[in-house]
Amino acid sequence: MRKIIVIGAGIGGLYAAKPLSEMGYQVTVIEARAREDLGYPWYDSVAPTTFKDVGLDVPSDSVIPKQVLNYYAPSGEGKIKQPDRAGKSLDVHREKLVRYLLSRLEPHCTLRFNERVKELLIEEGAVKGVVTDKESLRADLVIDASGLFSPCRTATPDSFFMNDPLHENDYIVAYREVYSREGGDKEPRPNVYLYPVDLMLAWCKSEPDMGGMDVFLGSYEEITAEGKAKALDFLHAHNPALGDKLLSTRKECVPLRYPLGVLAADGYAVVGNSAFMTQPFCGSGIEVSLKAASDLVSVIRELKEEPFTAANLWKYTVLFVKRFGAYYAAQYVFRQAIEALSPEDLDFIFTSGLFDKGIVALATFDKDHIKDVDFRGFFRGFLAAWHRKDIVTTLKSALNRAVRAYLLTRTLPAKYDREKVATWKGQYDSFMRSAAGEIRQAYLEAKK
Fold first, then answer.
1. Rounded to whole angstroms, how far apart are CA atoms 98 and 179?
2. Which helix (H) or strand (E) holds 128?
3. Which of 165, 175, 276, 417 is buried deepest, with most CB atoms within 10 A?
4. DSSP state of 275
5. CA 232 – CA 207 distance, rounded (Å)
6. What pLDDT does 34 receive?
7. What is the pLDDT of residue 298?
């Protein structure tokens, strides 16, 4: 019987484990944390058909109707309502989802908690298993779902094309907290603020399980006590329902970089945060992790008794790029434009009419809401902004590079050829890494 090891109890890895065991593989999940410590006690959004698409019957108490967010400029002015994918999107409780996924695995898989994978077992250029803090375990395939700071992926050989280092601004440090709620029974508005008070992102919305307010504070740098107090003062000023009593707190790191270019090598594949499978605008990766894991399972099913080589697993990368990767590469570039602008410029954009939910849908390739673009409002905003050469130049530069990022990403080789993959991966990383600096330079030159 062939063996598969899943590193980490990530959502994508946990999902993949059950169908792989049903296909006859001996599947072992190794997780460094205790079982009771898994999952995050909060809700994040998924598209309306996500669970149906991957064949999950998630318990009803794990999901609620999506809280449609209102986005505001750094000052708290202006408002852009988040597109809601036909009004059917859901918010799913991460901790409950992880528990459900774990319950599906018993007794089909071996679950090993409180055991840390230290490194991959590599022989003759291929992964043959893992080395934990307890023993060495051999396997025909290792699926890495251990998250953003995977010690295994970053230590893979250069020949795998997967050991991308983490750079500045590839992730944010975030506090996710629940505070008491004030103001009676009236449902508060779920509000998100871009780049307020020296942060990258802050939000305040209702938290249904504790009856409180869900607060998110995210920054590219560590958030000091003073910075946190300043951010909470800002949120209190704009959200009357936010109380002062802290009910729960958690600190996490959220990836916001473009997706990993190559997802599999000889005997090894990555899924979820290990491969930066998060939307570059918001960081929620539940939907993409599940669907990518589903694609990985389908590729493995097609292989039957064939070995888990880079060539045989290449289709997994191709499917991901076509379904998500190219769109997320373009979105990543758009985010660079937003970050290049000053808070004052963002305030102007939010209040000028340049952005509405339709324009946001267009920028983020949300096909369901492109029809909502208010072109007259956009044209009025464009006329108002025409004299702002810095803004026009920055947005033009971002649009040009976003289209190029999308097209470049989709030029990956259809079939695995080591030299062609190396060439494409080099071009992909070089372009994505240079986009931010080029957009920033265009903005600074236009400011002169």
1. 24
2. strand 126-132
3. 276
4. G
5. 16
6. 96
7. 98
Higher pLDDT pick, 99 / 351: 99
Q: What is the pLDDT of residue 290?
A: 97
Interatomic CA distance for residues 214 and 192, integer angstroms: 11
Q: Answer yes or no: is pLDDT of 419 > 60.
A: yes
Q: Which of 130-144, 177-191, 323-337, 368-382 has the lowest mean pLDDT?
A: 368-382
Angstrom distance (rounded) from CA 130 to CA 111 = 15
Question: What does the alpha-carbon distance between residue 387 and residue 22 come to, in Å, rounded to a whole number?
Answer: 63
For residues 171 and 254, the answer to whether their CB atoms sit within 8 Å is yes
Provide the CA 208 distance to its chain's centre, in angstroms. Answer: 23
Q: How confident is the model at residue 382 (pLDDT cuts 50, 70, 90)?
A: low
pLDDT at 158 over 80: yes
Q: Specify the DSSP element, H or E, that contains 46.
A: strand 43-46
> Cα 389 to chain center, whole Å?
32
What DSSP state is assigned to residue 325? I
Least-confidence region, from 82-91, 173-182, 341-350 = 82-91
| Measured CA distances, 422 to 134, 203, 216, 265, 427 (Å) | 36, 40, 39, 13, 9
Contact between 17 and 103 (Cβ < 8 Å): no
Give the list of residues 6+ apart from residue 40 with CB closer than 8 angstroms, or none. Answer: 94, 95, 176, 250, 252
Length of the chain: 448
Between residues 338 and 155, the one the model is more confident about: 155
Is the predicted pLDDT of residue 148 greater than 90, yes or no?
Answer: yes
Alpha-carbon torsion (322, 407, 150, 215), positive or negative: negative
Half-sphere exposure of 153 (CA within 13 A, CB side): 28
Residue 71 · residue 194 · CB < 8 Å:
yes
Give the whole-angstrom CA distance, residue 19 versus residue 307.
18
Overall average pLDDT of the 327-336 stretch: 90
Rounded to whole angstroms, the Cα distance separating 29 from 113 reads: 8
Both tokens of 315, joined, read 């289709």
The per-residue pLDDT for range 179-190, each reduced to its tens digit, is 999 987 788 889
Contact partners, residue 298, CB within 8 Å, separation at least 6: 319
Return d(Cα 96, Cα 102) in angstroms, integer: 10
Report whether 276 contacts 260 (CB < 8 A): yes
Quote the CA–CA distance of 175 and 252 in Å, as a whole number.
Answer: 6
